[in-house]
Write a structure and sequence with these properties.
Bound molecules: zinc ion
Number of domains: 1
CATH class: Alpha Beta
Strand content: 35-45%
Number of strands: 4
Distance between the termini: 25 Å
Structural class: alpha+beta
CATH topology: Ubiquitin-like (UB roll)
């Protein structure tokens, strides 16, 4: 798809690192599938992937972790 940020580049599938800072918990999730703009590097993560990220953040919160690094895995 066309990048909506630079309106110039095309996105390509890739893996990105996402960090979420929610309440008292910071979770870094690696290897998240995303579309990445080849020109400006903007990352696009689809809604289903975001939901899975939310679940990973919730499980870290339930485990009482303040900081966690996780690898993305599908549900
Ligand atoms: Zn772009």
């Amino acid at each position: 798809m066309k990048c909506i940020v630079c309106k110039n580049g095309d996105t390509e599938p890739g893996n990105v690192t996402v960090s979420v800072d929610k309440h008292d918990t910071v979770v870094v999730i690696r290897d998240v599938p995303a579309q990445v703009c080849a020109t400006c590097g903007e990352e696009y993560i689809d809604a289903q992937t975001m939901k899975q990220i939310e679940k990973l953040v919730e499980s870290a919160q339930k485990a009482g972790m303040n900081f966690a690094v996780q690898h993305y895995h599908a549900a």
